[in-house]
Every structure is written in structure tokens, then in C-alpha cells.
Design goal:
This protein is of the alpha/beta class and 284 residues long. It is built from ten helices and seven strands. The protein is globular and about 60 Å long.
Length: 284
């Protein structure tokens, strides 16, 4: 199997996710390399994102597109939030529930679609979506759902892939489906979408450095695996034979070049829902 050069063979036929990018993250070899953190910037970026949300302990927060639960568990354990987490993938939710048990934290995990959130109106103080928003097929619908479930003054944090100009053809053809880039848009388009849905911007940051670190980390791990060295002492839960490591390394370098050129970016948006009749400045 050559997972990047032959993408059609890498998607499990039983995947219930809404995009091939989602199915990509369900695969054992991806989980092994990413260690259950499927967004650039890892926990450090999550901490920056959550700090900017400025929510008190006990706040009700949801993680949308939670993957296998890393951020949700961290929010419950280290921030003392009341955490709910949603993912469309049954496999991811099953793994998240197992990991929560091992971690002795409490998170309400839901296998659900972002387009129809399993929450009551005005139930949440905050919602975070890390590297998942660009995968949703009807983002206006999802933003309307988020608006419905957030309290007035509620915080929304989105970190996601972004483009700047048209993607080079080779990247668009080979990498975009696997790197959440296929439906990523540019910064202005994100901002227009958020504004149209009634959200105001609190802070925005370019977090593209996390993409470069991610590429470096993946290359290092692949190098180790290729040399027969265990990554973090764990044996791979997949068969390395047949992986075209040279091809993967080529595409990782190609990806990093475009990040350095600025045509592929990773952005953080900290947003809030204004309170009716309130002074917006007071909420920031
Ligand atoms: C790139 S992964 C990010 C996972 C996690 N947020 C993280 O940072 O580790 C994107 C996640 O979004 C989920 N997803 C995609 N479409 C979805 C939808 N319509 N509703 C809910 N979750 C969705 C996928 O199953 C996948 O777990």
C-alpha cells in the first residue's frame, strides 16, 4: 500500500465519515504517527486557542469534530470544563470513549453530524473545532447550528487549514484530499462566513509554523520506522511493508515548500457571539 500516491486504495470501504480526509484519520498508520492529535500545532496550539476563549472552570464547552478525544479529555481534565464532544465517525468515538475510561475523566461523547448538533438551544458557553470546520459540507448550516447552541456572548474557536491563491496542481491532485485542504478556503472567505453567521472576531493568528513542525515530526517518525526503530517505544499497529517511504517523504517536502511560500496556511480564529444590546467590548 502506498497511502499517499494511491489515495483511492487507502480509504476503508466501511468508513462512515463525510470526507476522505476524515476516513484518512481513522487509519491505524495515521493514528500511530499522529498519536491521536490530528491537527497542526498539537496541544500547544490547543492551549493557546483555549486561553484566548477565556472561559472559567465549570463552563460548558463542546469539541466539534473531536477525533479520538484528545482535546476533549484535556479540556475536562486540565481546565475543569464540562465537556461534550461530537464526531461523525463511529470508530473515532469508540476509541475516544475507551481513552476517556483509561484517563478517568468525564466527557459526553456523541457520534453525531456537525450539521445537526445534539445540544439544546443556548446550552453551551463555548465550542472549539480544530481542523474539522473545513471538512463540513455545508458550513453555513453548521455555523447556524453553533449559533443556536451557544449562549449569547458564547465563544467559538476554530483552527483550520487555509489556502492563499490557487493550490498548485500537483498538491491539489495528490495531497489536498488527505490533508483537509480539499475544501479549505482563504482567510477572507472564512472571515466573511463567520461575519455572515453573526460571529465577531476576537483574535486571529497565523499558526502555519505548526504545519512545518508537523511535517518535520512525521518525517522523523517515518525515518525511524524505516530504520526499524520504534516510535515512542510503540510497535506500529500496521504493516510497514509496501509503504513507499520515499514517496511520502517527497510529498511532505513538497507540502512544506508550499507552506513556506504561504500558499498553504493554518489559521486560528477566536470568535464570539455578541449579546443583544450589550457593549461588545465588555465581552472580549
Ligand atoms: C482532521 S480530524 C481532527 C480531529 C480532532 N479535532 C483533532 O484535532 O485531533 C477531523 C475530524 O472531523 C470529523 N468530522 C468530519 N466531518 C464531520 C461532520 N460532518 N460532523 C462531525 N464530525 C466530522 C472527522 O471524523 C475527524 O475526526
Amino acid at each position: 500500500m502506498a497511502p499517499i500516491t494511491k489515495p483511492d486504495r487507502a480509504i476503508p470501504s466501511t468508513a462512515q465519515s463525510s470526507s476522505c480526509c476524515s476516513a484518512f484519520y481513522e487509519q491505524d498508520w495515521v493514528r500511530h504517527l499522529a498519536e491521536d492529535i490530528f491537527h497542526p500545532g498539537g496541544e500547544e496550539l490547543t492551549n493557546r486557542t483555549v486561553a484566548a476563549m477565556n472561559l472559567p472552570a465549570g463552563a460548558a464547552i463542546a469539541d466539534l469534530g473531536c477525533g479520538t478525544g484528545t482535546t476533549a479529555i484535556m479540556l475536562a481534565r486540565y481546565y475543569d470544563f464540562v465537556v461534550s464532544a461530537v464526531d461523525i465517525s463511529a470508530a473515532n468515538i469508540e476509541r475516544a470513549v475507551q481513552r476517556m475510561g483509561a484517563d478517568q475523566t468525564t466527557v459526553r461523547f456523541y457520534q453525531a453530524d456537525a450539521h445537526q448538533l445534539p445540544f439544546n438551544d443556548s446550552e453551551l458557553d463555548g465550542l472549539i473545532a480544530e481542523c474539522s470546520f473545513s471538512l463540513f459540507s455545508e458550513r453555513e448550516t453548521v455555523l447556524a447550528e453553533i449559533r443556536r447552541v451557544l449562549k449569547p456572548g458564547g465563544k467559538l474557536a476554530i483552527t483550520d487549514m487555509a489556502t492563499s491563491g490557487a493550490l498548485p496542481e500537483d498538491i491539489a491532485g495528490v495531497l489536498a484530499p488527505w490533508t483537509c485542504l480539499a475544501d479549505a478556503v482563504d482567510q477572507e472567505t472564512y472571515l466573511e462566513m463567520f461575519a455572515a453567521a453573526g460571529f465577531k472576531i476576537q483574535t486571529m493568528a497565523d499558526e502555519s509554523a505548526g504545519l512545518i513542525s508537523l511535517v518535520r515530526m512525521l518525517k522523523r517518525k517515518l525515518l525511524l520506522l524505516g530504520a526499524g526503530v520504534l516510535v515512542n517505544g510503540k510497535a506500529p499497529a500496521f504493516d510497514l511493508a509496501g509503504f513507499d517511504l520515499a514517496s511520502i517523504k517527497f510529498w511532505l517536502d513538497r507540502f512544506a515548500t508550499e507552506v513556506e511560500k504561504g500558499s498553504i496556511r493554518y489559521l486560528r480564529f477566536n470568535l464570539y457571539l455578541p449579546c443583544p444590546l450589550a457593549n461588545d467590548k465588555a465581552l472580549q
